[in-house]
């Protein structure tokens, strides 16, 4: 899902926010809490910390990182939506974390109570294994998973996350069955993989890249439609002989839907400025993305940003697809 400054679910409500709410010129007057709905060391954590430091300088207030892992990100999102709608609590989230993960947790989806501030990352998803693993390519991995169903262990960052849905799609497309193991984020899962406790892990480039570069991990495949420039030897699904699908993670910063629009506008401008800074430019090599819809371009016809009216059917189509994938996951 392409994240915009104005939510197609909530822009109307935000537009009529009470004028009695705190004025933007006094914001922020205290530290801002940045909720990360996963454990330290994963894609969300790495991306958030890259942006939080320059954001603190830009706002003139401390941005406090608050890791709240659990239930595929649901625990962290609940912490954010239960906080006051005053702009002082922000959360990093994605479509799967806000919609699919709550289904697995037996709760209502949370997209309808969140308003997007800025897109932060579009990170490719990889299947990684240890460098000394018997799986030197996807052909060998799938052959064993097919010959011995349920014996090859495949970890992911939490039920309902993009990585989990990607594994389910891979199973369905290739008619194999993994022993799928959820973690409370990529950090703990990668640690278990490095310790030899699981065979493979589906992870974002952001958190896997340092281990690949150090020679500890080997990337078997990229869940994208094109090769990753910094990993030119890693094949796409199609190149590995699999049915192709797009399995990367697009995520951004959100606040509670009732947050006053001036607060959202200010946070959006600040994150847009930060995206053009040197620290985040370095982070883009790991998937930290430029805000595609800053204020000056949000309504420009050539901006590449999809407007609310066109996003609704796309979102509904994806909701239908993801809902079916969760059903398949429960059946597996």
Give the topology, please.
Elements lengths: L10 H5 L16 E5 L6 H17 L3 E5 L6 H8 L7 E6 H10 L9 E10 L1 E6 L7 H10 L5 E4 L5 H13 L4 E4 L3 H9 L5 E5 H9 L3 E6 L26 E8 L4 H15 L2 H6 L24 H24 L1
Parallel strand pairs: 1-2, 1-3, 6-7, 6-8
Antiparallel strand pairs: 3-10, 4-10, 5-8, 5-9
Helix pairs in contact: 2-9, 4-11, 6-11
Question: Care to describe what's here?
Answer:
There is one protein chain. The protein has 332 residues and is of the alpha/beta class. The protein has two domains: 11-123 and 248-331, D-Maltodextrin-Binding Protein, domain 2 (3-Layer(aba) Sandwich); 125-222, D-Maltodextrin-Binding Protein, domain 2. It has eleven helices and ten strands. A five-stranded mixed sheet has the order 2-1-3-10-4, sandwiched between helices. Helix 2 (43-59) links the parallel strand 1 and strand 2 (63-67). Helix 2 (43-59) crosses helix 9 (261-275). The two termini are 26 Å apart.
By secondary-structure content and strand pairing, the structural class works out as alpha/beta
Terminal-residue CA separation: 26 Å
Share of residues in helices: 25-40%
Strand arrangement within the widest β-sheet reads 2-1-3-10-4
What value does the Rg take, in angstroms? Answer: 20 Å
Order of helices and strands: HEHEHEHEEHEHEHEHEEHHH
Low-confidence sequence ranges: 1-23, 280-319, 328-332
How many discrete structural domains?
Answer: 2
**What is the overall silhouette?**
elongated
Kindly report the name of the CATH homologous superfamily of the largest domain: Bordetella uptake gene, domain 1
Major pleated sheet: 5 strands, mixed
- CATH level 1 class label of the largest domain: Alpha Beta
CATH topology of the largest domain: D-Maltodextrin-Binding Protein, domain 2
Q: How many strand segments?
A: 10
CATH architecture of the largest domain: 3-Layer(aba) Sandwich
Q: Please state roughly what percent of the residues sit in beta strands, choosing from under 5%, 5-15%, 15-25%, 25-35%, 35-45% or over 45%.
A: 15-25%
The mean pLDDT is: 78
The helix count comes to 11
């Amino acid at each position: 899902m392409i994240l915009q400054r104005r939510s197609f679910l909530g822009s109307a409500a935000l537009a009529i926010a009470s004028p009695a709410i705190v004025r933007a010129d006094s914001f922020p007057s205290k530290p801002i809490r940045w909720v990360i709905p996963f454990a330290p060391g994963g894609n969300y954590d790495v991306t958030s910390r890259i942006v939080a430091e320059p954001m603190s300088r830009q706002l003139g207030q401390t941005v406090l990182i608050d890791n709240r892992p659990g239930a595929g990100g649901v625990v962290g999102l609940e912490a954010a939506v239960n906080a006051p709608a005053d702009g002082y609590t922000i959360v990093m989230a994605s479509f799967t974390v806000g919609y699919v993960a709550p289904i697995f947790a037996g709760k209502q989806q949370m997209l309808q109570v969140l308003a997007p501030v800025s897109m932060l990352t579009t990170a490719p998803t990889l299947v990684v294994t240890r460098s000394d693993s018997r799986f030197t390519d996807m052909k060998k991995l799938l052959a064993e998973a097919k010959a011995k169903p349920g014996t090859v262990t495949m970890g992911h960052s939490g039920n309902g996350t993009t990585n989990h849905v990607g594994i389910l799609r891979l199973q369905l497309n290739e008619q194999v069955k993994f022993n799928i193991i959820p973690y409370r984020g990529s950090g703990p899962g990668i640690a278990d993989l490095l310790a030899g406790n699981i065979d493979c892990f589906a992870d974002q480039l952001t958190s896997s890249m340092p281990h690949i570069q150090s020679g500890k991990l080997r990337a078997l495949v990229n869940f994208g439609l094109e090769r990753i420039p910094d990993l030119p030897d890693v094949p796409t699904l199609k190149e590995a002989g699999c049915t192709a699908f797009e399995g990367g993670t697009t995520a951004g910063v959100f606040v509670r839907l009732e947050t006053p629009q001036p607060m959202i506008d200010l946070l959006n401008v600040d994150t847009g400025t930060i995206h053009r800074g040197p620290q985040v430019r370095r982070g883009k090599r790991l998937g930290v993305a430029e805000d595609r819809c800053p204020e000056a371009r949000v309504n420009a016809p050539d901006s590449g940003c999809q407007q609310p009216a066109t996003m609704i059917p796309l979102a509904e189509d994806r909701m239908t697809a993801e809902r079916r994938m969760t059903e398949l996951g429960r059946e597996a």
